[in-house]
Amino acid sequence: MRRNLPRSKYQKGIIHPIKYLRDYLERDIRPDGRQFLRVRPMSVNVRSITQADSSSIFKIGNTTVVCGIKAELAEPKVETPDCGYIIPNVELPPLCSPKFRPGPPSDQAQISSKIVETVFLNSGVLDPRNLCISKNKLVWVLYCDLICIDYDGSVMDACVGALMAALKTLTLPEVEHNPDTGAIIVHPSKRLSVPLKGAPVCTTFALFEDQLLIPDPTEEEESLALARLSLVIDGEELCGVYKAGGIPISQEVLMKSLSQSKKRAELVRKLIDTAISST
Amino acid sequence: MEGTEIVEDEGILRPMKCELNHLTMPDGSAMFMQGDTAVVAGIYGPVEARVQKMMYDKASIEVVYTPIKGPPCVDDRMREQIIKETCEAALIATLHPGTAICINVQELQDSGGLLACTVNAACLALINSGLSMKFMIGAVNCMIEKDSQKLILDPDTTQIQEAKATFTFIFDSSKKDLVSCQTTGRFTEKEFLYSFDKCKEASQCVFQFFRSIVTKYATRI
Amino acid sequence: MREVILSHCEKNFVNKAIDKETRLDGRQLLEARPVNIHFGSNWGCCIVSLGRTKAIAQVSCDIQKPKASRPNEGMLHINVELNPMAAPFFEAGRQSDPSVQINRQLERCLKDSKCIDLESLCIVADKKAWNLRVDINIINHDGNLVDCASIAALAALMHFHRPDVSSSEEEIIIHSFAEKDPLPLTIYHHPVCISFLVFENGNTIMDPTYLEEKVGVAQLTMGINSYRELCSLDFNYLTRTSVADVIPTISNQAANYAAELVSLIKESVRQDVEARYKKEVKNFGRFENCIATDKLTAMFTDKIPIKLSSWGKMDDREDEIMEDQKENEQIIKINKNSAELLLLKGDLFGNGGVNTWQNDSSSDDEEESSDEVVMVEETKTKCHVLDDIELSEDSEEEETQNMTKDDIQT
Question: Which long-range contacts (CB under 8 A, 24 or more apart) does A195-199 make?
């Protein structure tokens, strides 16, 4: 019967995980000692995987996501002859949490990939036309592999953060394409960075009884939360509000989460910028 | 001063049409149309749960969404998840421990606001199935037009092509709070909150529709 | 969920009724249930109900490279999905035995009988051809799924119009419906499946219901077109008992009914298509027509106008939450490629639980008492981690020192 027990049950030997968490929350503190509106420390590292065209490691508390971007040349899709495309793929291997089993990607991994893709498309951070080399003939395809190596809640935040950090350091080699002969010459030494617009930042919140809102939940909090909410913020604008079910959220709390996530977005943006700055 | 940014307008919800008990096999079913967008939903439950999915303290809720054409894709997984979590919020699953409640939704035609239509159909089918619910759920779709910055409620396919951002809000009927939310495109906080507010108003019409259809047959049985 | 097994008394009851040549729904033995066809507003989309059995069909098309064995033909792909909505024992997304069987029967009836002119679907030989896909979803199961699916598939194919294409060298242009009128498919003949069920006592019935299907002994499905030509034949024993040859006795009835059915389908397709050509929006068989208006459980509304109040009053939101935090976070640059966001004093007693990654070689609680030390420690350990990752660029001498220090500490 192990499969349906919450993870913390057998991991920490807690008999009543819900009561355990509630006791903490009633004393105005979270099990890891954070105050309600406090986020975990974050850390980002870029360019450490030399084989990828760009890479990053993003950590939020224990949650760790590695992102590697591989650029390949391909023919464009028929509907969009002058647009390149990006294929994000979120992997949740058994390594990152006992929740996941080996085998084909789980529903959650598929949905996470989809969310990352929609965040990317909605934010318009990268104009797909910038990935076009020769209309109708040749475009760049960016395979973005996001691998979670430690699953401790707010994985979407880490995924989006890792993707953005990797995109910001992405350089593509110059390519010459002769439309008549179809010959392709790649100059691996001449690398140009891709123009980016903005940087969306995702913030996950967990919602508990009495509209108690906590940002950046750990896996333990996330699995016991009554609802989850993710906000994607890019500068002054929003580019995604996702809430799938759970207890209803009132407008005041929604506003509160908006202002909280704005603050965090600013911090994350600064963090990524500091990491990639050359000095 | 800020009122200039979004022009005041009268919103229109497309005509809603519905038939409960549309299918004979499921325990509860509904065919629901909003404009030309049509969906059929069927509920089985509580039924015997598969061993892997069985939960000892509550009913497991399974959602199957079938697109009208082609094999199911990742988008459909997303939709399934939203429907599942939304219905889970509305149903009192602890009343039927160890069982399964299967919610099946079949798309018939998509001309805008498919997700909203799907959720509304699922809610009607749940009402029809007689399962106990904490509250009803009502979904409203809306969009912000690219050029005019106008808010359009319940847009159809041609209107959506002009959209800068689209929102699907799902509300509960008791406290009128937000149960689920999905968005596309970029938008400002103000636009978001404005749409939220308007959709909340519009959701009352959806609930009113739900109520009147139940009253219509419940008073005569 | 497993299928519920039929009880003996139900079984006996049905058998006895068939003995007396009566059926539970009052039909004659060789009488089919009424067929209803409703078309959606897209081309090639319809809902068919055969009694209480309901199926939805949608035809779609895209351009693909034709098969190497048939370079100048388009392709036809038929897919029947036994939706779990139809019956609780159907499973989603899995090819079960009955679904494979129905798929195969429809393929034989529609594809192998060559009723669709596939050659006209070729655009450039060996390069590009239309690939037709018929998706049939069964949404309510009350027996005789094959017939219902075959009627839905045929009606959808007859109703379907594909976009026009014009090909210049190399490039093909697909015209939208607004540019050029769409084209219907060429259909040579119209085959439909007609099913029969043979009972223990040798009686044969047409168009069995779900209950009857579970009692019957042998199932017979004939694919017949309106010219009384047989296109496919499928005979299947459901139990171990054998029955006498029934085909001669019913084939005439099957052919007659097929002709009747095909003319019904043709008529309803013709009406809908003509209404579309004339752009009579009202007369389209829209899906709403399959909702019976007079039913107690049905409900219609007109457009609902909603007065939207003006925007201004939304603005009274106060930021009382903003007060709490001062500059509590600090971003520090660790080395060339890394940065870290730390929480300063006051929060240090818990920054995210048992935080194992921060101090991977040594975590001493005493050191955390002053935040400056923590930060330095952070820097060092971070470099240590990076060392492992980036073995290539080992230029900074500091790191070696750190490692030894760390090692000593442990």
Answer: A195/A126, A195/A127, A195/A130, A196/A125, A196/A126, A196/A167, A196/A168, A197/A124, A197/A125, A197/A126, A197/A127, A198/A123, A198/A124, A198/A125, A198/A234, A198/A235, A199/A125, A199/A164, A199/A168, A199/A234, A199/A269, A199/A272
Considering the four listed CATH numbers 3.90.190.20, 3.40.190.10, 3.30.230.70, 3.30.1490.10, the one that applies to the domain covering B12-218 is 3.30.230.70
Domain chopping of chain C, boundaries: 8-290, 328-409
Contacts of A251 in chain B (CB under 8 A): 177-178, 193, 196
Domain extents for chain A?
38-276
Q: Which residues pair with C131 in a beta bridge?
A: C62, C75
Residue whose pair of structure tokens reads 């019904």 in the numeric block: C264
Could you tell me if B189 lies within 8 Å of chain C, comparing CB atoms?
no
Q: Does A33 touch chain B (CB under 8 A)?
A: no
pTM score, two decimals? 0.85
B177 interfacial to chain C (CB closer than 8 Å): no
What is the ipTM, given to two decimal places? 0.87
* Chain B contact for C359 (CB, 8 A cutoff): no
The residues pairing with C53 across neighbouring beta strands, listed in sequence order, are C50
Taking only the tens place, the pLDDT of each residue in B47-60 is 988 888 888 888 99
Q: Which residues of C79-88 are buried (b: 16+ CB within 10 A; e: fewer)?
A: bbbbbbbbbb
- CB nearest to A61's CB, from C333, C337, C353: C353
Residues of C in contact with B151 (CB under 8 A): 308
Instruction: Encode pLDDT of A165-176 as tens digits.
Output: 999 988 888 888
Q: Looking at the domain C8-290, which fold is it? A: Ribosomal Protein S5; domain 2 (3.30.230)
In this complex, the residue of C321, C322, C338 whose CB is nearest that of residue A43 is C338
Q: Are strands B28-34 and B16-20 parallel, antiparallel or unpaired?
A: antiparallel
Cβ contact B81–A258 (<8 Å)? no
Sorted by where each begins, the domain ranges of chain B are 12-218
> Would you identify the CATH topology of the domain A38-276?
Ribosomal Protein S5; domain 2 (3.30.230)
Q: Do B89 and A227 touch (CB under 8 A)?
A: yes
